[in-house]
Each structure stands twice: as structure tokens, then as C-alpha cells.
Amino acid sequence: MEKYRAGAIERLKRVGDRPYLVSQNGGTSGRKEFIEAVFSSTENFTISNINTNEIFGSFPHPMAVHPHTDRWTFIPSKYRLRTWKWMNRVAGLSKPE
Prior knowledge:
Layout: H1 2-15, E1 20-24, H2 29-38, E2 45-49, H3 52-56, H4 78-90
Parallel strand pairs: 1-2
């Protein structure tokens, strides 16, 4: 786990002050604490909990065999809409909420 964390710290440092979206199925508290331990300011980070069970129902699903999947973006949901809004705001295509 230490090797993974060291690599993650290096990747996060390359982000600098650019906007960064962290999406996670399930609890996001561990991610938030990890990021806060690396950066003194986390204003550019948005952490989004994606409930894939709410999107797909039960697993395995024809589109995803496991809840840990990126295929949730293919199905309309409040999570996808929230992510699109974030991306449009970051890209300057919409006004901040």
C-alpha cells in the first residue's frame, strides 16, 4: 500500500492548482483525508460519491459485472448530471453554481 500511496502523491502533485474530480463508489472519506494530508489547500478538489447500485440496481448487470466500474457514465443519473455540470464549469462552458 505504501508504494501505491507514494505513486498517488506524485500524481496528485502534478495536478498543481488545476481542478480535479475524484469519483468513488462507496465511502469517499478515506480519499478526502488522503488528499488533505498531501495538500495544505484542497479547494481545487471535488470529491464525488457515485452510488453505482442506485444506477444499475443489482450486480452483475449487463453493462457492468461489478459495482467498481466507470460505466455509470453511460446511464442517465443525478451522478452523471452532477459530473457533466462540474466538467462544463471547469471548461468554462457554464457559470459556477
